[in-house]
User: Fold these one by one.
Assistant:
Number 1:
Amino acid sequence: MNLSARFDESRNLVRFCRRPGHETLHADFTASFGFREMGSRMSILKDVGTAPGPDECFAHIEVDARRMFYKLLGLELEFPGAPEELLTQMQPYNSMNYYRSHIEEHFCLNGVRPLPPLRGLCTICFADTDRLQVSYELSNVGAAPLKVRLRWFSVPDRHFPCTFADGVLSSRQKVIGEYDIAVAFQAERRDLSFQDNGERLESAWIDVEIEPRGNWSTSFCIAFDDSTSLNVPPMPSEGATAILTAAKKRMDAVYAALPSIPLQFADYEELVLRAVGILIANEHTSRTLGGDSVRTIHAGKAGVCATWWWDTACSLLGMGLLRRNEAARGAMRLLLEGVDEQGVPCARYVNGKYFRGHQQPILAWGLERFHQLSPDPALVADSYEGLARYVRHWLRDCDSDGNGLVEYPPGAVCWDDSLRWQSNPVAFAADRAWYKNDWGKADSGAVENADTNANLYTECICMAKFAQMLDKREEARGWRREAARLRELISEQLFDPELQTFQDRRVGGAFTNMLTPSCFMPLYAEIPEPELALQICERYLLAPEHFNTLLPFPSLDLAHPAFRGGGFLKERGSSLSPQSYWIGRTWPHVSFWMVGAIYRSGLQREADEAADRILSALNRSESIYECYDPMTGYGVGHAEFSWSASAVLSLAYRLYREV
């Protein structure tokens, strides 16, 4: 895909700046929009009306981002000899081009007559992982020499105690756990060392004279590490211009390697490029428990800074299209090293810690999709035993009544606040007021789920393929037997003849009578006969009164009285929790499965039309969000989200057509 003719436009994809609360889920989640690259564990924002240089800086070392600096690096200017009253009237102005590879800030001074003949350019990019390059260039556009006094400063967030010595700021942060963080400043000029005055770090003033029509430049290297032993690094030998050129080439190479977008969805090229940028930006350099450095994929940048189980599985499709094999290998390694001897998986890995819990069993599916797009036999071989152990755990340990169908374990992390887990029927009785209805308590372990069992069926199919690849023929036959058994049980016990679709069912009891996308995952898995699958799609998925909303397909039937298109965050202890997270919002990764269900049911034209509607709705926003209001298409979850970016790529490249 040759984008060289549109390079500048295509790279300019997002504003890495502070957003209003309604855009960022909450003001505390503004780091979702932070600029980061090269798998860095830090990100920065850059706003208008601030001193030239990077503004807020966030550490993404724990699951939630933490601000390290209110102002990472800023430039102050004085003009020796100019009248004081003129200097006090000057008003700074800056504007930015925000690229995926770098930020370009143009600045000048306004508000006085005559105007000073000074223009400035600040360029910010990553030299490598956790090493930021900040370059300044001042231009004298006048006919006489221009004298300027310059000073740089930095304002740490001292919410946690920090110390500054020998050019290194050290602090101990606490989010869920504690971690050390160190930031080292190195200036190209030896006379620009920083001192701590108790409020901010400052350099000494330096005097510069710029020749007529001439330029003056300098640069800084800012290095980060999650330790207190960081030393001030030397300035990069390659120079600021070479570092910026390399950063541009990295993104050029990613865009240029993209396959051509199918003509049907070619109008969504900018959305596709946005999705590519998000997936690349959400790559993260992590360490295994053994201390090895690996590249992985995070769900997002704020509130979700971790390698999650089902997020990774969904992201692997987009990563496969981009051939991000290194990050895929790292993510699979981190997750599968967290599967214990009994096969119990982790929900996420972050900063050297595993958090036990179950998410939907789809990791083998994600790897199989990845391998089809970017073949990696070694990754399949390395992953097989861990995947086999976790799938067997589901089959063996998550079936409380021994009927062959699994339940979603209590306390598991998926579909979070969904009403499908309630112990009593979620309904509004005709003989009493709505507020007297008792929906009971959430208890996922008491429900046999249509999606979990269908996903497990798909995992067995994928494991059979892997075993065949690895010449484990007997194991391949065993996986196929498990798949056939699950297929029969899902068809017999999780199909509701009254509603004529698949349903969640309480263990040993009745169907939940709640339609969600879970009901249609057996269609994606191609479990029912084509004629039945087609009828289910026409009755529910393609019906505007049920799931075919402006942005298809909501996480709860539109016809259900409890349907909610979204909700704001509420305080819960010291954290924030979403409202109506899975009680109606549309989730792009789920919508991809629903489009696949429609296509596999024989409704190819309808599947393509649904994909087009989803891409069209997502294209209205500058970012790509975790989830959306299905009635408006407005993003109501975390921005810059990996599985949604992967879903965009999967839809635009019509991966739902592949079996």
Note: The chain has a mean pLDDT of 92.
Number 2:
Amino acid sequence: MLALTAAALALVTALSACGSASGTHEKAEAAPVKDGGNLVFGVRSDPINFNPSAFGNGNTTWNITRQLYDSLVYQDPKTEKIEPWLAEEFSSNADATEFTFKLRDDVTFSDGTKLTAETVKANLDDVKKAGASSVGAAYVKTYESTQVVDEHTAVVKFSAPNAAFLSEAATPTMGLISDKSTQVPYEERANGKKVSGSGPFVLKSYTKDQSTVVTKRAGYKWAPKGFDNTGDAHLDSIEFKVITESANLTGGLVSGQLDVIESVSPNDYDTVAASANVVQRSNPGTVFGVYFNEKKPLFQDELIRDAISHAVNPAEVVKGAWNDRTKVADSPISHTTLGYKSQKDKLADYDPKAAEADLDKAGWTKGADGIREKDGQKLKLRIAYKNNSAVNSDSIAIIQEQLKAVGIDSEQFSGTIPEFIAVIGPGKFDLAWSNLSNVDGDVLRSQFSDEGTNNWPIQDQGIEQELKDQLKIGDASKRNTALAKIQSDIIEGRHFVPVHELTSAFGVSKNVTGIKQGADARLDLLIDAAKQ
């Protein structure tokens, strides 16, 4: 095994990649937990895809797939340290180009096959081969190979330092599937019927746009040490019911028809809190904001980006679409993200007059209808966003009014995440409204670099190089300094308009216990969940 030195600890961004299986969670004294029962869990959208590394429907998909697929390591939500999971020991070499994993020898998949080092190799090779079809593509950009040392020891190799790999390996996206499952063509795995995981639940049924049912898997005994339950799940089953309207989700919880709901609406927060518990956590990663399609010449003009930055009023968006519990963003990444640095002093002030001056200078003049035009072309922008949250449409409507006030017309495109990607991929948009939850500051590379899976890379080679170089920095302090400069350069160059951070909130019936959020604020394993 490679020694995990102090330098290596720093290299993984202060994640303390310790190889001990002791865990660091505090366990509170609790009443005996009741086994059995079905948990009815209201979700906002259809999961679409049960292949863990593929694109699904955002948090709804990951909330469900986390129950089916385990990861090599676990990121403690309290300490953000990396802890053992399927790998009972792990280490990194000094420059984070090699990661050694010593696997548990008792892990099996739901198809009866065992976890081996060959499984780790097959999974990483699979994500790499999937390329842009996989959410994990940015995580394995420099992945080279996996050396199978013996049945339970794998050495994962990268062609360049990858300081964020352990954090990324802990995500649901990098949940492992069986060797047999990796042999199924990637595009044939979406319905989950041919995919087997090692998680505490297995997929029983899926009815599109209606429900997903998962049932307890007998013999599960390898949950991370931070969980109270060391054996089979307490619940017999979980039914994830698709309920798209926020009012119906809230009503179902309050009336007792639902046991848990995801994505508590800001407008319903007080109603939910009055009769149920609210489990919430601020999401790490990129904040919600306005992305520019800089592949289009219009947005390569900094005057246009500056104008939009001055035209958008984040505080008004938060007030009109969210509530006072929502934090106005002051950086491209949230304050809970490793490497965050406030850019408050460098943000564009809300200043419609400055926006209009920029547009005038760029040659866009107001027509009789108040909409600006140039060379006979109206300034009308297409704004794309995902429909997996009702609040997104409210935010976009407010932004549209703010843009119109300075003479910019706009139209919306909204769809499921696959539909959103189908528009973003070929660049059929002008502005995009999105976020991406991820604990590590490398999420900036995922979102703004041409190495990422999104199609709005910044057209600035200096920033592009910075995004790639930060991943190679071994010293945590120096890497944070590099990440701070990237955030500053993105804001000063007006490459992104930060609007608000995201807080993920679950409404939980008072007779339900064990609902927890992971370090990424998404639903954690429901191994401890029970109905009392």
Note: Residues 1-28 have pLDDT under 50 and may be disordered.
